[in-house]
Design a protein that fits this description.
The complex is a heterodimer of chains A (about 290) and B (about 600).
Chain A (H helix, E strand, L loop, with lengths): L1 H33 L6 H19 L3 H29 L4 H23 L9 H4 L1 E4 L2 E4 H23 L1 H11 L1 H6 L4 H23 L10 H15 L4 H21 L5 H15 L11
Antiparallel strand pairs in A: 1-2
Helix pairs in contact in A: 1-6, 1-9, 1-10, 1-11, 2-3, 2-4, 2-9, 2-10, 3-4, 3-9, 6-7, 6-9, 10-11, 10-12, 11-12
Chain B lengths: L17 H15 L7 H24 L10 H16 L5 H23 L4 H21 L1 H4 L5 E2 L8 H23 L1 H11 L1 H6 L4 H27 L1 E2 L1 H4 L2 H15 L6 H19 L4 H15 L3 H17 L12 H10 L17 E10 L2 E11 L4 E5 L6 H9 L6 E6 L2 E2 L5 H7 L1 E3 L12 H9 L6 H14 L15 H14 L4 E5 L7 H16 L3 E5 L3 H7 L2 E6 L2 E6 L1 H6 L1 H7 L10
Parallel strand pairs in B: 5-10, 5-11, 8-9, 9-10
Antiparallel strand pairs in B: 1-2, 3-4, 3-6, 6-7, 11-12
The chains are: A mainly alpha (about 290), B alpha/beta (about 600).
């Protein structure tokens, strides 16, 4: 019986972790290229959730398909934010804390706009497959969670391949390492910044679509996910997509196991403690040097 | 003492000035105000205003003046609010004592938090301390036996009306502003600002970063805690989501300080007025959308007005002032000043170099010092000595390890192997501030002025290494500035100096710590021939005071003319050493350098 519980919570933790990894990957990408911690990341995810909800409720569009819409939509939103707010701030060489304040202010603004448009009512997602389960290794697993994790992993792998194999990916990596040197090679740093921020936000939006079936909807869900994304990013080494995977799985496991074996109430504290510990002892993250 | 007003708007002389009288009048006005304000609503607004003045100012001490931007001050506010409430309600501790204890508890809490968080810089610090605040909030929600959980704590009514609360918070606001003002005028205040502007440069001047950052944090936490202890009885009710709120407490404190102007004593009051007034107007008119406007305000300030309103206004004024009467003021420098200053410099607070040498008469001795960075061997078994009173030139091709050697000696890097003895102390692996206190001062290859402080304040900060009294330090600083012919620029912000002046400022700071040994890292780099001659003259004058010098240099004209002894490094090893003329003729040195031929080069 104890083994069952262990297996169940481990599996749940890993699946959740896969999703967390996607959320963290976006923030990691943004940090890796722009050196900006996007405190509005959770809000991007939240917007993705709303887009998915409003596509599903009247049009019955499968949430996993609406990833194809939320991703580009959030890419656009992110690009606009970078172009008109983040970029100008970075060019002023302001103290780093100002970036935090800026993205935090943006997150607050987005939350409020959504709240004014759609009210603060909590909504849930009710479809048959949201509650369907499958039996894996003798343990009952939510199908929605399984689907979310699989698609999240697929997107992460795609991202990794793009970064490693394509020209766009090389531009991103080059700018991340040295924007000025990259510009000497003909890479337009500002455009890359916009691209990175856009893709990062797009990933968060996609994660939102995947998350909706297993979570609830409200304008204020963003904050918690920004924090999770940050923890994942820190655990994995800021700027590393591979690290985000490791970080995500770690966080997912820590939360899941912590909720079962330590206390449900304090499960968030576990996440915080883990990240404080990692930041203090191994600032480069669990994976090590920041690299993609 | 002449009137010095830094760009931060801090009056540095005693309070009986037009400014001081003005402040006194304003204070008087606040004291008698309640007799004219009858409406409880407006009194409430005033109380809020004063509360936020206090909170903004206490945050400002750590954030604006020490450069540690905390996103988690709710940790201290909330903890103290709970401590005060629980002490008053439970054991019946008198209110003021309970409030004081709340503040003290917050200060004590800040110690372990500081130890963990100060290992991190910038945004990591900000977010980690946020993490701590969140942990405390979750604990407050779940530790029901003590905190009553999410239900919160109800504070029994104490006073019949708001008037006593008004005077309490007025007192706290005044206390906070006064405490910050007092601290800024003290040695700690200079040290905080130095840490803000450049932590490594501060370290090199003998400032222990952890100790002083912790001090700033504790004071800030204490003051924030006092205000939390006020909030509980005033509000009558506290719960975790109110007193530990990220947005309403932690971020609001930042907004108040940043809006008015971080690093400016009068920033938080201005910020508090705007935040309180704006919040009220928005709340009553826009109702639901006020947070949206709040977010727009944050974004606007951060992107367009990073210096805050007071800072922006100050820049406008400074801009017009500099357009009117620029550059060098008529200087009270008379011809003998430099020479007199030199004499005073030598007969200073330390026994002269050579009076008690250690290590068989050597002032500095490195033995088999090795430094590797991962796979890169920067220094290999370097044996290197400096005699008291001598000028030692350290030369070598780029990448030879010269700056690494200086960093290892001054404590910025730990040697992988080997020992360093200075003046009969083993200084291997000591942190830079300890090395500085033992008598080793250094300059940096790329000058690191404390940009937001004046030239004079830069040097005062260095001089405080040997004294607690700011007045004494200022006298010493003025002597040093005269010695280096920077006295006429002393009231300018360090950021506005030319390259050559910045290098002299580096040397001034180093000299103000009364060192026995001066480590100079490429002081002549990037200077034109006239400026280079000036540097040589300065080095001659320094040598005359008896201070030993190790100078890393590429400019041969400088190094060859003033060095008593030369050491050549190549690939991390000592290649040759001896008198300048010998070394210049040494074929191996010529070979390694590829250019030290006739005439010297100024690479």
């Amino acid at each position: 019986m104890g083994n069952q519980v262990l297996l169940q919570s481990t599996l749940n933790g890993l699946l959740l972790g896969g999703l967390y990894a996607l959320i963290g990957a976006g923030m990691s990408l943004i940090f890796g290229v722009l050196r900006v911690i996007n405190l509005a990341h959770g809000e991007m995810l939240m917007v993705g959730m709303y887009i998915t909800f409003w596509l599903f409720t009247p049009f019955h569009l499968n949430p996993y398909v609406s990833v194809l819409i939320s991703f580009p939509a959030l890419c656009l939103l992110g690009a606009v934010i970078q172009r008109f707010l983040v970029g100008p701030l970075l060019r002023k060489n302001a103290p780093e804390e100002n970036q935090l304040l800026l993205t935090m202010g943006v997150g607050l603004g987005i939350t409020e706009v959504v709240r004014l448009l759609f009210t603060a009512n909590y909504r849930t997602f009710s479809t048959p497959f949201a509650t369907a389960t499958a039996t894996v290794l003798g343990v009952s697993i939510s199908l929605a969670l399984l689907s979310a994790c699989s698609i999240a992993l697929a997107i992460s792998i795609l991202l990794y391949l793009v970064l490693l194999r394509t020209d766009m990916g090389r531009s991103l990596r080059a700018t991340a390492q040295d924007k000025d040197a990259a510009s000497l090679y003909g890479i337009d740093g500002e455009r890359v910044y916009t691209l990175a921020f856009g893709i990062g936000c797009g990933l968060a939006g996609a994660a939102g679509s995947l998350l909706l079936p297993i979570y609830y909807l409200s304008p204020t869900v963003g904050g918690a996910f920004t924090l999770k994304a940050f923890i994942v990013t820190v655990l994995g080494g800021m700027g590393s997509v591979l690290g985000a995977l490791v970080g995500g799985l770690t966080l997912g496991l820590a939360e899941s196991l912590g909720a079962v074996y330590v206390s449900t109430a304090y499960r968030d504290v576990i996440g915080y403690l883990v990240f404080i510990l990692v930041l203090s002892l191994r600032p480069a993250g669990l994976v090590g040097r920041s690299r993609f | 003492m002449d009137r010095t007003e830094t760009a931060a708007g801090l009056p540095l002389r005693k309070a009986v000035t037009p400014g001081g009288i003005g402040i006194g009048l304003i204070l008087l006005a606040f004291v008698i105000l309640p007799f004219f304000v009858r409406s409880p609503y407006y009194l409430h607004l005033l109380i809020l205003f004063l509360l936020w003045v206090g909170l903004g100012e206490s945050w400002n001490l750590l954030g604006g003046f020490t450069g540690q931007v905390s996103f988690g001050h709710a940790a201290f506010f909330g903890t103290a609010a709970y401590v005060t409430s629980l002490l008053y309600i439970g054991p019946g501790v008198p209110l003021l004592v309970a409030g004081l204890l709340g503040g003290i508890f917050a200060a004590i809490l800040s110690i372990p938090i500081g130890f963990v968080c100060f290992r991190l810089r910038g945004p990591y610090f900000a977010l980690t301390i946020l993490g701590f605040a969140e942990i405390l909030r979750i604990i407050a929600i779940n530790w029901r036996s003590v905190t009553k959980g999410p239900v919160g704590v109800l504070f029994p009514p104490i006073f019949r009306d708001k008037l006593p609360f008004y005077y309490m918070v007025l007192g706290l606001a005044v206390l906070t502003v006064w405490a910050v003002w007092l601290t800024l005028r003290s040695k700690a205040g200079y040290y905080f600002r130095a840490l803000r502007d450049d932590q490594d440069a501060a370290n090199a001047m003998g400032i222990d970063p952890t100790r002083y950052k912790l001090f700033s944090l504790m004071l800030s936490a204490f003051l924030t805690g006092l205000l939390g202890g006020f909030f509980a009885p005033y509000q009558g009710y506290i719960d975790p989501d109110v007193v530990f709120s990220i947005l309403d407490i932690s971020i609001a404190m930042i907004v108040v300080a940043v809006l008015g102007g971080m690093g400016n004593l009068w920033g938080p009051p201005v910020g508090a007025v705007i935040v309180v007034v704006l919040s009220e107007i928005l709340r009553t008119t826009l109702g639901g959308a006020h947070l949206l406007v709040y977010s727009a305000v944050i974004i606007t300030i951060v992107v367009f007005l990073p210096e805050g309103l007071v800072g922006w206004f100050g820049q406008l004024l400074a801009g017009s002032a500099s357009r009117r009467g620029t550059t060098a003021r008529a200087v009270e420098d008379h011809p003998g000043a430099t020479a007199q200053a030199a004499v005073r410099l030598a007969g200073s607070d330390r026994p002269a170099a050579g009076a008690d040498p250690g290590s068989d008469g050597m002032l500095l001795r490195t033995e088999k010092v090795t430094k590797s960075f991962g796979g890169l061997l920067a220094l290999q078994s370097v044996d290197f000595q400096v005699r008291p009173g001598e000028v030692l030139g350290l030369i070598g091709p780029n990448g030879a390890g010269k700056t690494t050697l200086l960093s290892v000696i001054s404590g910025f890097e730990r040697p992988t192997a080997g020992t360093i003895r200075f003046d009969s102390h083993d200084i291997t692996g000591l942190p830079p501030h300890r090395v500085a206190h033992l008598g080793v001062a250094r300059t940096f290859q790329i000058a690191r002025p404390l940009k937001k402080m004046t030239v004079l304040d830069n040097v005062v900060t260095a001089a405080l290494a040997n004294t607690v009294h700011v007045g004494e330090a200022r006298e010493k600083a003025e002597q040093v500035l005269q010695f280096l012919e920077l006295y006429h620029r002393r009231h300018l912000l360090a950021a506005s100096l030319t390259l050559e002046e910045r290098k002299r400022l580096e040397m001034a700071r180093a000299l103000a710590t009364s060192p026995k040994l001066l480590l100079l890292d490429e002081v002549a780099a990037g200077l034109n021939p006239t400026e280079t001659k000036g540097v040589v003259a300065i080095l001659e004058r320094i040598r005359e005071t008896g201070i030993s010098i190790v100078a890393v240099e590429h400019v041969m004209q400088v190094i060859m003319s003033i060095s008593d002894h030369i050491v050549v490094l190549n690939y991390g090893q000592v290649l040759a050493e001896g008198k300048p003329a010998e070394v210049a003729r040494n074929p191996e040195v010529i070979h390694a350098y590829l250019g030290v031929a006739e005439g010297g080069d100024d690479a």
